[in-house]
Amino acid sequence: MADHGTVEYATATGQDVAADLVAHEATYDRFVQLAFVGTLHVVNIVIGLGIGAVAGHWGVAFLIFIVATVLAAHGLAAGAKTPLVVMTVLSLLALALTA
After folding, report:
1. Among candidate residues 19, 20, 35, the one with its CA nearest the CA of residue 81
2. Which residue intervals of the chain are DSSP H helices?
3. For residue 48, which of 3, 27, 59, 64 is within the disulfide window of CB 3.0 to 4.6 Å?
4. For the chain (length 99 residues), average pLDDT per consecutive 10?
């Protein structure tokens, strides 16, 4: 059998809780940005597919695909949300006009 000695407890030294909290909040903010941009990008793609497949305006659909992809990349790189929101509104307007 194993020898039962005294239990040694150690305390964590050098752990900076404030720095860990800042890193955690930055990661969470980045995740929220990714979820927001990804969701709006998928919405724009679906709207573009609706315009192309249902209404037959594939030129408008490809324009939406390209602009939405560029704005999604910009949103991920720069952290901007407004351009993709505006693009979604314009996509909905294009859907309404082509339907």
Report:
1. 35
2. 17-53, 58-78, 82-98
3. 64
4. 69 68 91 96 96 94 96 94 95 94
